[in-house]
Amino acid sequence: MSDMYEGNNEFDLFITDLNGNLRGKRMPSSGLKSVMTQGVKLPQSVIGFDHWGDDVLDNGMVFETGDSDGLCLAVHPEPISVPWAESARDQILAMMYNVDGTPFYPDPRQILTRIVKRFKALGYTPVVATELEFYLLDGQSEAKRQPSPPIIVEGNGVRLNKTDCYSIEEMDGLEGFFAEVRRACEIQGIPADTIISELGPGQFEINMKHSNDAVQAADHAIMFKRLIKGVARQHDFGATFMAKPYADKSGNGFHVHFSLLDEQGINVFDNGTDEGSSLLQQAVAGLLNHMSDSMLVFAPHMNSYRRFQNGAHAPTFASWGYENRTVAVRIPESDNVARRIEHRVSGADANPYLVLAAVLGAALHGIETKMSPPQPIEGDAYAMSERFELLPNRWELATESFADSAFLRDYLGEEFVRVYGAAKEQEQQKIHGRISNVEYEAYL
């Protein structure tokens, strides 16, 4: 960090826990130089909190270790301004290490970093782009704990309560909001590209530009989710990346596009044909083979599984095809030099670091073992459901597949499987321990 740096009054330092929630400290600017050079200590157990921020005693990181500290070090050379904050503030994204300086592998950013290094050892660099969907909400939605579409004050003052996919007029009515999103992305170095009005009322998708740094691509996704919520509050809206906020409307997806470059910068998925290279086929096979194992990463919460319904643009089977949006793994139509894979399973509520680690890890395993995929699907994959194994469609089933996965233990790590699995089991116990209103309505 430059000695001449003149920052804001405060800064937030945060790491990303396994659920994708940000955990850290808000500190005065007087401590900035020390934080940037020496880091900040936080309990390692923070990484494995459940969704509500409670300790998970079964993960082996609390009492067994004396709830020992890890060292959180900044991942960027300078703090980043938070332009939507009410008072001047910066933010520092960090990654956790053991206190001896070695990687702490339950940290999701460390897990993805390790996967990228395995590609590098083979002479490949993943090139990644992400697509995140979210809903804008009425400003009272968070307080009421009930989603409601926003009212467009800049337009005709009507509530966005109908689907208007790809509507430019809908975005015109939110011009001030999206202009502020663009400005905040530029300030924070987030490579936002196209903005699309999606299938739900008040639902939008913002695509990121391709990056040859997969870890940085996940950083941008994490920062973008925080940015959207912050800018929304500034405009008296709410925003959610919840997988399925409305039972009868489109869910929020998180699609991942990726290709591989060799050491000469050549896309190894391109062989001059529309079908792509043998390496592309092997990567696809790995993705299909380990999709069930990784569903708890792609769909981490109870609500996540409401996305997976036939005809709802969320895949329910491990299938693939060319220029086909009914499959789980799509090969988009493109120029040969841009030949790539699109993974269409994850929800926007998933942790971007873990999603990229699971996707890239499965592709890597397919390449390393030279797997072969089945024939690609032409037409409606939902109509061919009898040909495929159903992906885990309930939280508990996904947890079982996750716990039994040798692939995840090998590629994402034993510690990760233990700690993440324990958090999910605790979350399930908490939710199933509560009686819902629908049960009272039906049975009381």
Automatic annotation (TrEMBL):
Pfam entry (one): Gln-synt_C
Alphabetical GO biological process terms: glutamine biosynthetic process; polyamine catabolic process
InterPro entries (alphabetical): Gln_synt_N_sf (IPR036651), Gln_synth/guanido_kin_cat_dom (IPR014746), Gln_synth_cat_dom (IPR008146)
Keyword Ligase in annotation: yes
Molecular-function annotations in GO: glutamine synthetase activity
Domain called GS catalytic: residue spans: 108-444
SMART domains registered for this protein in UniProt: Gln-synt_C
Alphabetically ordered keywords of this record: Ligase
EC number of this enzyme: 6.3.1.-
PANTHER family linked: GAMMA-GLUTAMYLPUTRESCINE SYNTHETASE (PTHR43785), TYPE-1 GLUTAMINE SYNTHETASE 2 (PTHR43785:SF12)
Family classification: Belongs to the glutamine synthetase family.
Listed name of the protein: Glutamine synthetase
Source organism: Marinomonas primoryensis
